[in-house]
Fold:
Amino acid sequence: MTRTDIDLAIAQIAERQHGAFSYEQAAACGATERLAERRLAARRWFREAEDVFRLPGAPRTWMTTLWVAVLAAGADAVISHEAAAALHGLATFRPGPVVVLVPHARTRLDQLATVHQSRRLYPEHITLIEGLRVTTVARTAIDLAAIYRRSRMEIVVDDSLTSRKAKLPEYCATFDDLASRGRKGVRLMRVILEDRQPGYIAPQSRAESLMLRVLRQGGLPRPVLQFPHPSPMIDSHVDGAYVAERILIEVDSRRWHTKVRDIDRDHERDQAANLVDWDTYRFSWADLTKRPDWVVSQLRQARRKAA
Structure:
C-alpha cells in the first residue's frame, strides 16, 4: 500500500467523523509513527488530543470536538448528559458542552470534555447518531436527573414522550437497570415515572435492579415489586412476586442476609408463605451475577409448574 493509499483511507474515515481520527484508526490503514510525525510536521494533520488528529480541510465544529472526545476516551466511551441531550434534540438543551460517559475512572480528557463514570452502562443504553456512540434518550434523561431540577426534567421527559423520541416502557426498563439507594437523581426520576406510568414500582435497591435485568434478559415478565407478604403473620414486603402463580422472589444482597438471625428470619418468612400456599425462591447476589441463566430457569420452571 502506498502513502497515497494510506492518506486516502484515512481521509475516508475522517470524513465520516467530522474530520477527526485516531492513531489506532490510522495504523489500521497502514500508517506508521514515522508517517504520523511527517504529516504533523507538514501540517497535513493537526493534533487535537493524545493520539487523536484532525485533517486540515475539515472545520473544527462542535461535532468534531465530540468525535475527538470519544476517540480520546477510548472504545467504551459514549457521548452523554447535556451533549447527548442536544444530539437527541431534547427540550431546553442546545449544542455546547462536550460530555462523555465511561465505565472506568482512568480516562483523563483535561479540558477537552466533562467525564462521568458509570459501571452500569449496558449496550441497550447506547445508540448511534451520525456514527457516534450516544446514550439513549431514556438513559440521557435519567443521567440528567442527577443534575437538574424537577421542573426542567419534567419538560424533558414529557417532550420526549410527546415527540416519540422515547416511550414510557423504555424509561422504566432503563430506570430498572439504574435505580438504587444513593444514586443521585433516582428519587426525582422515580417520582416522574410513577406519575406518568400508573402502577409502576421502581426497584428499591441495587439487588432488585439486578434481579429485574436478569429476568428481562432471560425473557421472563417483570414481577410485582415490593409485594406484601401473603401471610397474615408477616408484616413486611417481598422483593418481587408473580402473583398469579403464587411465587415470591427474594434477593439476598451482598451486604445483608449474612447474620444468623437474618437467616432464621428468612426461614420463618419462607415457611409462613408455604403455609398459605405460596412458594418462595431465594437468590443470592452471586446467583444473579455468576449464574443468571440458572436463576431464570428456576423461575421459568416454577411458573410452568404453577400454570
The two ends are 65 Å apart (CA to CA). The chain has a mean pLDDT of 91. The CA atoms of residues 48 and 54 lie 7 Å apart. The longest helix spans residues 260-275.
